[in-house]
User: Fold Alpha/beta hydrolase from Salipiger bermudensis.
Amino acid sequence: MRILFIHGRAQGQKSSDILRAEWGAALARGLADAGLSLPADVAFDHPFYGKTLDDFVDQAKLPQASEIVAMGGSSGDAGFDSFTRSVLQEIDARGEISEADVRAQMEPGSEIEEMGPQNWAWVRAFVRAVDARWPGFSGARINDFLTDVWLYLDKPAVQSAIDAIIEAELTDEPTLVVSHSLGTVVSYNILRTNKINLVGLMTLGSPLAIKAITAKLGMLENVAPKRWVNAYDVADIVALNPLDSTHFPVAPKIANYGGVKNTTGNHHGIGGDAPERGYLLDAKIIEQIVAFARL
Assistant:
């Protein structure tokens, strides 16, 4: 039995060994807190694509929202512009950021005549409002997140390079895939095209159900029909929607667990230093991992 961990974005300065240590420490702490243990024969793999992704981001040089405003409202990639607007509009639809919040973030002397993502001045102010509402998830990180997801979904060279790194770790052994953040998008794509001996899939803090992302995925399917568990903190802005019949309609249905209380700064972390508790410190997530490992 093996557990294949697939990391998220913003890991380019690390390595497979560093991630193994970080995820391993979080898992060990979660197991200890829950009074549980994994079977002795469980092996772990941590394919690392962080540096590859960062290299593609550097090559792409997609501007941030503030730079797009200065450029007259276009990044030069119409698809990316539309993708950015769509995601921010969906965040706006949550209703947690008011028009007053956005106007409070406007630059001195400026005025937004038309509120909404079609107006790049609004986009810039809205990103700042998100920063104020979720201090641990900064406006810069939103821009980075949008860039990373867009490049993976839209650019075949990026997707192929990242997928190849993960696919090199696939075996015929019974495997539990545990993926986080952007890694859940990667794992979905990998499992859609590679049929492995999959005992289960756990997605943590997944953005898969964001409309702009599902639109790029094409026909949706349950890539882990035996058992797919999607866990998230409702305060995690990346996990904008659950993978339910409304936002991610597949058969069989995905089991959603929205009771995570992720106390890392952005409610999105995987581990965290004590007393912080990321996704791998949640008792029910740990219980599910152990249950999968004992199949």
